[in-house]
Design brief:
CATH class of the largest domain: Mainly Beta
Low-confidence stretches: 1-51, 283-290
Order of helices and strands: HHEEEEEEEEEEEEEEEEEEEE
Shape: elongated
CATH superfamily of the largest domain: monomeric porin ompg
Strand order of the largest sheet: 1-2-3-4-5-6-7-8-9-10-11-12
Bound molecules: copper (II) ion
CATH topology of the largest domain: Porin
Oligomer: single chain
Mean pLDDT: 82
CATH architecture of the largest domain: Beta Barrel
Distance between the termini: 27 Å
Length: 403
C-alpha cells in the first residue's frame, strides 16, 4: 500500500551554515570530518521526512547504533551497564555505564550525547563524552530498499572527530546492519583510523529478537581485539521501552569504544526510555489541524476506503478527513506491533481519547507487521485514537468525519 510522506523538512539555512563556520574556527582542519558528514546528510534525499523515528533495541544489535533518529518532542534516555569481575580473591565487580541522551530535531535529524565511563582505551581519560548528530536520509519506512544513516560525532576524551555511515536492510525476520567508521584522532593518538562493523538481529516474535555484532579497527594492534556482542533484545509490550540483555568484550558503545574489544567478557543490559516532552511543556495531545481536503481512497463494494499507514511509531497521516459512511484501513508497515484504540479502559491517558457522542469505543487488537484493520465511520464528528504500546511516545491520530 502507499506509504504517505509527511511534508518535507526545511533545507539548512544560513544560520545552520554559520554554526558550521564557528566550529571551523575553533578546531581547524578537522572540522571537515564533521562538516562533510553533516552536509552529506543534509544534501541527501530530503524528499520524505521522519524515517525510522522510534528506537527499539529489537532493530539493532547491542554495539551498533542503528538508524533511528527519534521524534521531535521526545527525549531519548538510554541506560547501559556492563559488568566485569576482577581477579581473585576479591573478584570486585566493576560497572561500566554508558548513558545516552538524544532528541529528534526538526528536519529529521537526531542530536545527542553519550557519556561513557570507565573506558580503558584513552590513557588518562576514562570518561568519554561523545556528542553526535545523526541523519537517515534514506529509509525503508519510505519504501526505499534500505536505510542509509550518517553520524557525525566529536569524542571529547579523544579530542577526535568521528564519522559513521550505516546501511541497514530488513529481510523478513532478519535485519542486517553494516557500518564504516573513521576517527580523526583515535584514542587521542595523532592518527586517523578506520573501523568496520556489522551485525544482525533475528526477530523471534514481534517484540523479541536475538542479536549479535562484530567490529574491528582496520589496522588492529596486538592488544586491540575484534569487538563483539551478542544478546537478546526485547521490546517490552504495551510500553515504549526496550531492553537488551547481552554480553560483549567492548566496554563502551561510543563509535571508538565500540570498535575495539578487550580480553574479558562483560555482561550487561541496556534499557531505552523515551520521554515525551510535549506531555510536560503544554503541547496538546491532539495532532495538527485537519487537512483541507480528503485524501485518496479506493472504492470497495461501494464504500470509499482511505488508507492510514502505521510507521515505526506514528500514524501517517496523523489527521484524516472523511465523510460519514467512508472506511479507514490502517496497515502496519513497520516492524513493531501497533493498535488502533479508542477504548478508555485500555489506554494510559483516557483524556486523550475523543469520540462523538453515542459512538462505542473500538479497539483493533494487536496488529502485527503487515496486518490491517478496517472500520467504517457512520457518525460525523471528531475522533482521536491512540496506539496502546506507543501511546506514551505520542503515537496517536485524529479522524474528522463530515456529513
Ligand atoms: Cu504503535
Amino acid at each position: 500500500m502507499g506509504f504517505s510522506c509527511r511534508p518535507p523538512p526545511r533545507r539548512p539555512n544560513r544560520s545552520d551554515l554559520r554554526v558550521a563556520g564557528g566550529v571551523r574556527s575553533i578546531v581547524g582542519v578537522r572540522w571537515a570530518f564533521l562538516a562533510s558528514a553533516l552536509l552529506a546528510g543534509a544534501g541527501g534525499a530530503w524528499a520524505c521526512a521522519s524515517p525510522a523515528a522510534a528506537q527499539s533495541v529489537v532493530d539493532r544489535p547491542p554495539n551498533l547504533h542503528g538508524t533511528w533518529t527519534g521524534d521531535t518532542g521526545t527525549l531519548q534516555f538510554n541506560l547501559m551497564h556492563r559488568f566485569t569481575a576482577g581477579d581473585a580473591p576479591e573478584r570486585a565487580v566493576r560497572n561500566t555505564p554508558t548513558f545516552l541522551l538524544a532528541t529528534g530535531v526538526p528536519g529529521g535529524a537526531l542530536l545527542g550525547a553519550r557519556y561513557a565511563t570507565s573506558s580503558p582505551w584513552i590513557r588518562g581519560f576514562p570518561n568519554e563524552w561523545e556528542f553526535f548528530a545523526r541523519h537517515t536520509p534514506i529509509s525503508e519506512s519510505q519504501t526505499h530498499p534500505l536505510d542509509v544513516s550518517l553520524t557525525a560525532a566529536y569524542n571529547q576524551a579523544a579530542d577526535s572527530f568521528d564519522g559513521q555511515l550505516t546501511l541497514a536492510r530488513t529481510l523478513g525476520p532478519v535485519r542486517l546492519l553494516a557500518s564504516g567508521r573513521a576517527f580523526s584522532r583515535a584514542f587521542r593518538e595523532p592518527e586517523t583510523r578506520t573501523a568496520l562493523a556489522a551485525g544482525a538481529t533475528l526477530r523471534l516474535t514481534p517484540s523479541t529478537a536475538l542479536a549479535a555484532d562484530v567490529a574491528s579497527l582496520l589496522d588492529r594492534a596486538d592488544d586491540e581485539r575484534v569487538a563483539w556482542s551478542a544478546g537478546i533484545q526485547i521490546h517490552i509490550p504495551t510500553t515504549p521501552h526496550s531492553l537488551s540483555i547481552h554480553a560483549s568484550n567492548a566496554h563502551t558503545t561510543t563509535l571508538q569504544g565500540g570498535s575495539v574489544g578487550g580480553r574479558s567478557t562483560l555482561w550487561g543490559f541496556e534499557f531505552t526510555v523515551p520521554v515525551t516532552l510535549s506531555r510536560y511543556i503544554g503541547r496538546g495531545p491532539a495532532p495538527a489541524a485537519a487537512p483541507e481536503s480528503e485524501g485518496e481512497f479506493v472504492e470497495e463494494q461501494g464504500v470509499r476506503v482511505f488508507e492510514v499507514g502505521m510507521d515505526a511509531i506514528s500514524f501517517a497521516p496523523e489527521t484524516i478527513q472523511i465523510r460519514a459512511g467512508d472506511a479507514i484501513r490502517w496497515t502496519n508497515d513497520s516492524p513493531l506491533f501497533h493498535t488502533v484504540t479508542t477504548d478508555p479502559e485500555l489506554v494510559q491517558n483516557p483524556g486523550t481519547i475523543l469520540l462523538p457522542e453515542g459512538v462505542e469505543p473500538f479497539h483493533s487488537g494487536d496488529l502485527l507487521p503487515g496486518e490491517s484493520y478496517t472500520r467504517v465511520f457512520e457518525t460525523p464528528g471528531e475522533y482521536v485514537y491512540v496506539c496502546v504500546p506507543h501511546e506514551a511516545a505520542g503515537m496517536l491520530g485524529r479522524i474528522i468525519v463530515t456529513d
